[in-house]
Amino acid sequence: MPNDPITVRGDHDEAFKKAVRDALLNLPADKVGEIGALLDVDPPAPLVPVDKNTYQPLFDLAETLKLTEKDV
């Protein structure tokens, strides 16, 4: 995982979540670089959408290794 995911609380209004998602996904790489300190994105590049399926290999690995949240 090159960078931490940016999340929005699930119970926020759908219009708000869409506005945040659209704003972040439409940031050009140079603008991501300018605010990289806030987003912790290095190297600067366009942001991409992810969902739980994106991280499924990590969940699978944790299950295989019998890791729990206490191990994090």
Structure description:
The protein has helices at 14-25, 29-34, 36-39, 56-64. By secondary structure, it is mainly α. It is extended and about 40 Å long. Helix content is 43%, strand content 0%.
Per-chain topology:
Elements: H1 14-25, H2 29-34, H3 36-39, H4 56-64
How many separate helices?
4
Report the portion of residues in β strands. Answer: under 5%
What is the rounded distance between the termini? 15 Å
Rg computed from alpha carbons, rounded to a whole number of angstroms: 15 Å
Mean pLDDT: 84
Total count of strands: 0
Overall spatial form:
extended
Structural class: mainly alpha
| Biggest pleated sheet | none
Runs with pLDDT <50, length 5+? none
Helix residue percentage? 40-55%
Helix and strand pattern: HHHH
Keywords:
extended, 72 residues, 0% strand, mainly alpha, 4 helices
Short characterization:
This protein has about 70 residues and is an all-alpha fold. Helices cover about 45% and strands about 0% of the residues.
